[in-house]
Amino acid sequence: MLPFEIEKESFRMIDEILGETTINPLHAPLIKRAIHTSADFDYATNLCFSDHVVERAIQALKNGAHIVTDTQMAKAGINKTTLASLGGEVHCFVADEDVAKRAKEEGTTRSAIAIEKAAELNYPLIFAVGNAPTALMKIKELIETGKLSPELVIGVPVGFVNVVESKEQMMQVNVPYIVAKGRKGGSNIAAALCNALLYMAVNRQI
Amino acid sequence: MLPFEIEKESFRMIDEILGETTINPLHAPLIKRAIHTSADFDYATNLCFSDHVVERAIQALKNGAHIVTDTQMAKAGINKTTLASLGGEVHCFVADEDVAKRAKEEGTTRSAIAIEKAAELNYPLIFAVGNAPTALMKIKELIETGKLSPELVIGVPVGFVNVVESKEQMMQVNVPYIVAKGRKGGSNIAAALCNALLYMAVNRQI
């Protein structure tokens, strides 16, 4: 089987297992791609979408939105060729020297400072957070103080400390969001959700 | 909380949830780190370890073993600073032009050809496969034909087509292995298992 055939058959199997589960057709490609990357069917029920978020995100990508991730892993997993075909790029500043220096000086996390640096980019921005609740909380703060107005926030940090809370709080912010309720998420899920939106934006099958 | 404190508290919470679950103490750091990266407690029961694999893997890392991954995502997730402190490096050849060219010529996957290229490296090797069952099947073939003798195979591809079978077959090969039985796994899990072994090799807490 060729890679595309394997992917097609995988999605057919996911459909079969999902069976009669009720899923909004616009959310389905994102939910299925999260399941495809984790084999974890919890993503059929834990992903939360703000109103019209998928249509808006697709439009933003078509308009050349750039994507900001909180980890190199999420950046590595995003289909940069498809994103570039729409005029976008992926940015991740967490490993930058100036970010590490400022985080140390200000006694905060590199993840939070990396978001501040990203907020200075002059592009429409999609944030994809798969790891750091502090990144998500920094995005919330910048939105609420009028310093950032993202096209979309993908809030899927994974873990045990402040993770559930950061996601609940993000869903209270007036911004288009896709959030995985509960502890689950990760860089792989963040990348998968970005890729699902990218493939919808370029009308790629699956 | 500082990042290290967050990690410590996360592992405490994982311990609390695992409760009385019986886990081999040598396997525990790997299982917990897989749970830490996914918040998925299935990894408490689906990870399978060949005899003495953890002791052997730690020794291999201390001897300067290099790690080969099947995806850039897994490579991105591995702690390369800790690996370098032991004399190792991470390699991933899947995006190389010569690999793409040969895969096309031979009508096979880039993942399989990337493993053939890695097998020519003159280092003790640990393979960490989080995505491609064809990579795992190529490793099996090279071992069985005497062309490869890895220190360890981490076999945690995720998915629906040939994934379960490839992992079952890997566990029949005469090689030290760590395998996630069933459909689950991923690049994040592959990286987490490598990092757990690295931290054991340098006696890092948690």
Automatic annotation (TrEMBL), chains A, B:
Q: Name one GO biological process term.
A: cobalamin biosynthetic process
Protein's UniProt keywords contain Isomerase: yes
Please provide, alphabetically and separated by semicolons, the GO molecular function terms listed in this UniProt record: precorrin-8X methylmutase activity
Q: Which residue numbers delimit the Cobalamin biosynthesis precorrin-8X methylmutase CobH/CbiC domain? A: 5-200
Supply the alphabetized keyword list. Answer: Cobalamin biosynthesis, Isomerase
Any single Pfam family the record assigns to this protein: CbiC
Its UniProt pathway annotation is:
Cofactor biosynthesis; adenosylcobalamin biosynthesis
**Where on the tree of life does the source sit, at the highest rank?**
Bacteria
Q: Does the keyword Isomerase apply?
A: yes
The record's similarity note reads: Belongs to the CobH/CbiC family.
Q: Return the protein name.
A: Precorrin-8X methylmutase
Question: What is the source species?
Answer: Holtiella tumoricola
